[in-house]
Amino acid sequence: MVTYGSYLGAEANIRDDAAWTVLGDTTAGLLAGLAIFPAGFVDTFGWTRRRAVWTVDAGSLVLAVPPMIDLRIFVPRDLRFGSGGQTFGTLVAVVTIGWVMNRATLLEEIAGPDPSAADRALIHWLRWVVPTAVTAAAVWWLVTDILGIVGSV
Hints:
This protein has 153 residues and is mostly helical. The protein has helices at residues 2-6, 14-45, 49-69, 71-74, 78-100, 103-111, 117-146.
């Protein structure tokens, strides 16, 4: 955002630009999540795609209702739990893809019928490196923002 903001002209409406950015980012994230999480349920539990999508949608609705009813539930916790929630959601998605989905299915989805050595290495990257990095970010968030043990940078 800092880089983007440095290119804005004086006539730019930062509030409108921020709202459009939030809308676009949120829409992209929701669409990605709605595509990824049901796939994990289908692969893991043998559910139909319809059942997996409706389950994820219903859970999302149940979690979204309290902040919609009363913003006092949401606003004070936005920065604290929003950051942690994004990190946790990323960790759940990466663990679902790397550890829950069938490796052969995942490899075929990534590379098709003839995977290369780089494609196989990507599976290991998704299983070990990415979750470790996201967990490190989550621990940093916990130590700085929640527990206040280390001052934030």
